Amino acid sequence: MGIFDGFPIPPDKEYLRDELARIDENWAAARFDSLPHVVRILTSKDREGELRILKDQSDVVEDVVDEVVHAYHGGFNKAIQNYSQILRLFSESAESIGDLKVDLAEAKRRLGARNKQLHQLWYRSVTLRHIISLLDQIEGISKVPARIEKLISEKQYYAAAQLHVQSALMLEREGLQTVGALQDVRSELTKLRGVLFFKVLEDLHAHLYNKGEYSSVSSSMHDNDDEVPTTTAVAFAANSSQPVSRRTRSVKGDHGLVDGSYRPGSIDGGSSFDGPDDDGSLDDNALDGHAVRLNGGDGKDAKIVSCQIPLWLMNSTPDEFVETIKKSDAPLHVKYLQTMVECLCLLNKVAAAGAMICQRLRPTIHEIITSRIKVHSEFINSSRSGIDKATRTGTSSLHFVKGQLESFQLPKQKRQNGISLAGALLAVSPVSPVMAPKGKAQAAAKELLDSILDCVVRIFENHVVVGELIESKSSLQSDTNTPKSMSIDVNLDSEASQVTGGYSIGFSLTVLQSECQQLICEILRATPEAASADAAVQTARLASKVPTKEKRDESEDGLTFAFRFTDASISVPNQGVDLIRQGWSRKGPNVSQEGYGSAAVLPEQGLYLAASIYRPVLEFTDKVASMLPKKYAQLGNDGLQAFVENFVKDHLLPTMFVDYRKGVQQAISSPAAFRPRAHASVSYTSSIEKGRPVLQGLLAIDFLAKEVLGWAQAMPKFAADLVKYVQTFLERTYERCRTSYMEAVLEKQSYMLMGRHDIEKLMRLDPASVCLPSSLGQSNAKSIASDAESIEVESELSELLLNLRPIRQENLIRDDNKLVLLASLSDSLEYVADSIERLVQATPQASNHVESGKPNHTRTSSSPARDLASFADEYRKLAIDCLKVLRVEMQLETIFHMQEMTVREYLENQDAEEPDDFVISLTAQITRRDEEMAPFVAGVKRNYIFGGICGIAANASIKALANMKSINLFGVQQICRNSIALEQALAAIPSIDSEAVQQRLDHVRTYYELLNMPYEALLAFITEHEHLFTAAEYVNLLKVQVPGREIPPDAQDRVSEILSHR
């Protein structure tokens, strides 16, 4: 941009701007040097041309200057005219001021002549104004009682208190004290002070317990029946309660709140008045001033502020407290409580009110709890009557409820021998289904206590608000010097502890917790002595802080009630803790002389309801602790939570351990505890609900363990102790299971083989071990190197077992009932192990969920869970031992029968129509035992138990040839017939692979059919199938004598030569 761009050039002469743009900006430099331009022109070839260019540029500049002058010429003229007008106005002002000075001097001269007369008139005006003010005050005071009564009837208590205080102050002013007509007014105001005090106290009392018009919640159990609607604020209407006269429209006295407490404004105690502002005069038109204040100032906020004035302050005089309430964001009921306390402060009745609140606190709480329980009972009865009508089909409602509880609490089981399994489980449990961790009594107790404690929390919230206000007022009043004019009817104590009349947040919390504790004692059926002593221990801390009995304003009775437990603490000094630990009874005849009637709501009462009480008490304690001021923070740690925790620790847990230990002992010592179920279903089912035949003793133990861990989930803080109880019970049950196992296998060869390291190692490597039980959710499959290695392991194990021949019958388990017991015991142990693992997975999650965000209530750790997991491993290991014993037992049973082949001669003279007797006996035994075990073990376990028979029978049959001297064609057919019978028996077991059985026994038949081949054909077969059998097995084919078959002397050498090339 150029320096000439800002010139005002009209649009029709825009060409001048272009011409200016061609002019070099050096011509406009601050220090112009003409020498370079002169030299350039003189040295130029076309001097005339250069001069002409300069001439043209000069013309352009002159044109631009003309345009600028033309544009600004009018402005210059107007400015000159304005300056002329200003100069003229200054000259006229100087002349006017001079005239004014002359007039003022003349006025001063004339007023000085009448100065004394004006002073007399002013003094007379002041005197008349004072007389008028006194008459106005007398007239206003005479109407005050009626106005106060009207405000009281309209529940405008704060306005009434303001009017009373202002009237009392004015009656004490000099000039009105000697008016005889006001004596009656003084007496009426004294009476109205008491009436107003009791009205305010009653309304405060109602709102303290959520029974007032502005309470936030209803105090009834069911909001639909007894809900108290709350009142919302309405727009402020500036209506005066009394008609006012012109004389009373003077400036009101400045009375208000300073730092939250009422303090009088500037009140002149003398009789003289300095001008027309009469401080302390009654203001009948206070609302007019309020309206002016609302409508003045910033009009944007006036409408919003007016909507925040509550109904109960509608007729009050605006002061600091009213402004505070208007600007406060507190709930409506809190504002109302603040107003009531402020009224008590204005009336100087804080001590009396505190004493009366203390006096009525306990009976009121008792009445509220009793009424809520009564309403809850009526609601339950009405609901139950509808259920009774629906279920009245020949059985009583009690039996119906019990049936529902049993079906809910216990798995559905078919009746066995006329006795319900659910009934057997109920018999071993120390608690009824109603009192179980998830029973209806627990749910009812928790619901009832939740409701009552929630009500108590809301009540305590109000007490915290009122308590803090009263304490703050008392501290401020104790630090403020009371004016002499307020000395009448003021009996407040100088000490701050005495100003509140004994009322404090700590006192209210102690009484509330004491009443809740009494209710809990009734629910738990505990004796009242320990509760009283415990309450005495709690209130004794406050007893030392109670002021001595002095003259108080209606507070003596309140203090007597507030520490009524002090007598109990004096009668049994230093025994509170002992009574807490010793004064409990599970079946106390009378819970309290003044009960709450909780028996009408709860199906049962007793010690075990402490589990349902624990969680509501913790939530109650947390809520109370969050509301307590810092100075009372220590009170949240003591009280109801400590009482319940001590009760659980000192009474519930020991009783629970004894009761459940007795139940465990009864469950495992019963004759039917380890007796397999008679008439079990034909097929096995893995679902306990559909009839899984778990031993009754172990099923009962599992039920008790789940029940105890249910208590642990209800009381997470004591979960570690309860888990230890479960560990103790599981340990005793494991010992009993081990005893039953040993009774079945003691001194039997199968059990002794289990102790051999080589046998145990081979069974662990056996491919069939994949059928054994594994941890919940895990596979027991093992990585097997190859089929050859698997066959080698199976062959080696078979060789070890065959080397045990001859097997004696007395070393075998001949009693089928013991085998069935082992099968049922294995399945039952596996069921308990899986159940324990589920409990291990569920228990930590439950404790973390319940106590999330509250680490101070949790004492559980991961070590108990690991201990329970170790018990699951032990149970599963014993279950595996049972299956291994059954597998080895069936293998030994097979060897016991098949060993007769070694002593029998197979030189038959006819075709085999039936298998040998020992094979018939073996197959019959296999079929019978499979049928007896089928309902008690899963198919995969049956495969493991009977799956080893085929291999042992095949190896025993092939190795039996080495002990035979001769065999004929019919003998070979007899052996093949035996293998077919055995194959049919094993194939009848559904869980066994029939193709594998057929393949193994076909191998036996192929081996014996080789005896029917001539020698040369046998050599050809060996050459083609040299790996089908071992060298020893091929040699045994040559050793045995077969009628009609010729074997050369070097037959074995030729066979060895053939096999050496493999």
From TrEMBL:
One BP annotation, GO: mucilage biosynthetic process involved in seed coat development
Biased-composition ranges, Polar residues, are 236-245
Indicate the segments annotated as coiled coil, or none if absent. none
Q: GO CC annotations?
A: cytosol; exocyst; extracellular exosome
Renumbered to this chain, region (Disordered) spans 236-286, 844-865
Q: Where is the composition biased (Low complexity)?
A: 265-274
- Which Pfam families did the record assign? Sec8_N
Q: Where is the Exocyst complex component Sec8 N-terminal domain?
A: 16-151
- Positions with biased composition (Acidic residues): 275-286
UniProt key word Cytoplasm: no
Its keywords, alphabetically, are: Exocytosis, Protein transport, Transport
Q: Does the keyword Cell membrane apply?
A: no
Q: What does this protein do?
A: Component of the exocyst complex involved in the docking of exocytic vesicles with fusion sites on the plasma membrane.
User: Which family is this sequence assigned to?
Assistant: Belongs to the SEC8 family.
This chain's protein is named: Exocyst complex component Sec8
